[in-house]
Amino acid sequence: MNTEKELESRGAERKPVLEVHNLKSYYESRDGEVPAVDGVDLTLYPGEIVGIVGESGCGKSTVVRSLLGLMDPVTSRREAGTALFEDRDLFRLSEKELCKVRGKGISMIFQNPLSALDPVYTIGSQIMEILKIHESITDKEARERAIELLHQVNIPSPELRLNQYPHELSGGMQQRVVIAIALACNPKILIADEPTTALDVTVQAQILALIRELRDRLNIAVILITHNMGVVAAICDRMCVMYGGVVVEEGRCEEIFANPRHPYTRGLLAAIPSIDEDKETLYTIPGQVDVLKAPVNFCRFEKRCSHACSKCREEEPQLRGESDHLSRCWVFPDKSSEKTDFEQAKVVAP
Amino acid sequence: MKRYVLMRVLKAIFTIWAVYTLVFFLTRVTGDPVDWLTQAGASDAAKETLRRNLGLDLPLWDQYVKSFVGLFTGDTGTSYYYSREVSALFAERIWPTVTLGSIVFVVTIAVGLPLGVLAAVKHNSLLDRLTMSLAVIGSTLPNFVLGILLIFIFALTLRMLPSGGTGTVKNYIMPIIALSVGPVASVARLTRSSLLDVIGNDYLDFVRSKGMREWKVVIKHGLRNALIPVITILGSQLSALIGGSVVVETVFAWPGIGTLIVTSAQQRDFPVVVFGVLVIAASVTFVNLLVDLSYGLLDPRIRKS
Ligand SMILES: Nc1ncnc2c1ncn2[C@@H]1O[C@H](COP(=O)(O)OP(=O)(O)O)[C@@H](O)[C@H]1O
Ligand SMILES: [Mg+2]
């Protein structure tokens, strides 16, 4: 009996909740199309936290906004891709069907909690709102559920909070409310786009702990977007490093932290702010994220890479490697390349 | 907040009193009503009797005190020209004015708001550009000019509508258009720009990600937030409407208080003019008061402070 159940649950875990394949999302700009997301694959299993990491402008938000159909159709276009969620392709759903997925199947929280809540409605009404969108529920039931949800995200005296307005709460509290709203209808997936970037360090840690606690309790799958490898180290199981609209390295976190392959990943690791050491200046990767033009037929990181060779300028590398660790680099494509002489000194352990 | 409301009400009362006093003395320097009311060549004795009957022989200050105190005892004075209680005259004339004003106000909201929302949602579309071009014209054209233009086209040239008077539905059409175009245009423009500001906000994305349908997102969260500046402009439009109706009523010979005040001013019928201005000042002040207080209701961030 027990073993059967175990097997069953393991079997279920093996089936992904979300399978994104070859997602391409372009913005229209005056001088051509910007390939903000240019062929991203992403697989998400129940109960795991996957980090999407990369500097600002690498296309992280565009990936997740595309998934939920939150892109502006006037300035952007989805070029290609499928996104299987509960046996349906999200990109083929009508707006009406997509509305039923948003908030119920897949929830999303955004970077700045101070601007995520509508300033003119109470906390309570904004929590009850999502319940009423997806469930037929009375006011009284919705109120009770709202209190319960605030409890769940560790907000003290929830009854009092219900009648307060967002501006009466601190940033950390507002982010908790946002998370409570996102979890209200028991979604399968929580997407968190830089959920702690706008918060100070202690609150940051609390929010991350909360996300992990909720994942453990609810077995929800989480996509966590960040530009901070430290955040990935703190809570993610797997990670995708994005650069220039593509995934440049992907795999289990311990594996990548131990043996980073792509020079960009190494740069990000070196740039983790260290709390104990009082370093004068923090390491930053030289140069900046370029705005590209489609089509791209060279390595996107080549301009900033100290290992770039002529091949990098002529052809874009593909993701290669083992199933638990892939990288998109001509110079460091697989396990054998890990032993290559690297500027290991720059890499700070998480 | 209570303190603020109290201060605001006191200020409003002071404003009304100040306007009343100003107009009271200003009317007195425009000339002698007795000259207007008597025929040329009337004897000095007859003029003196009339002056005494009208209470104009008293010192100016006594007249002022008498008329001011009268307001509180329900004595609004007697019209020189109609020889009737001023309040009775107004009671007769207020309904045409209020009816017209209410219709115009409803039209302003019912047309201006949706136009603004539509223009914002479809911004930079042909519809948006067309609406906004018309709105610019509409909000710059003075309502009496528009009124005269309408009379010229629809009454004099096409002979489709009566040029003035009241009684049938047709009589309403031109005054309503003349008075609504400006406010509709202003409200549409402001709703559009205010909503466009709100539409860029993160909280709308969060509401979308909750699964709310787009039109509901725009109305419930977008418009609700955009409404705060729109209410201000509605208030000032309403004030302007109260003032503007005085002229437009005259243009269309509309039997409301606007026409009454204008003719009374020509006839130096002081009690009527002063009371009329008092009514208008009180309405305008009341509207502004409501607008100020409604901020608190609309924006919780202001309410608590
Ligand atoms: N509305 C837009 N119009 C044009 N380009 C955009 C727009 N939004 C984002 N981009 C471009 O798309 C790229 C990826 O943006 P984004 O997904 O926001 O990155 P990230 O979330 O990783 O910071 C950037 O190069 C940015 O310049
Ligand atoms: Mg982003």
Strand content of chain B: under 5%
Helix content of chain B: over 70%
The CATH architecture of chain B can be named as Orthogonal Bundle
Apparent shape of chain A: globular
* Number of alpha- plus pi-helical segments of chain B: 13
What integer is the average pLDDT of chain A?
Answer: 85
Question: How would you sum up the global shape of chain B?
Answer: flat
Tally the helices of chain A: what do you get? 12
Main beta sheet strand tally, sense and closure of chain B: none
Radius of gyration of chain A: 21 Å
At CATH level 3, the topology of chain B is MetI-like fold
Please write the CATH class name of chain B.
Mainly Alpha
> What is the SS-derived class of chain A?
alpha/beta
CATH-assigned homologous superfamily of chain B? MetI-like
For the biggest β-sheet of chain A, the strand order reads: 6-7-8-3-9-10-12-11
User: End-to-end distance of chain A, in Å?
Assistant: 42 Å
Identify low-pLDDT runs of chain B: none
Give the overall pLDDT of chain B as a whole number. 88
List keywords for this structure.
heterodimer; A: alpha/beta; 12 helices; globular; disordered C terminus; B: 305 residues; mainly alpha; MetI-like fold; 13 helices; 80% helix; binds adenosine-5'-diphosphate
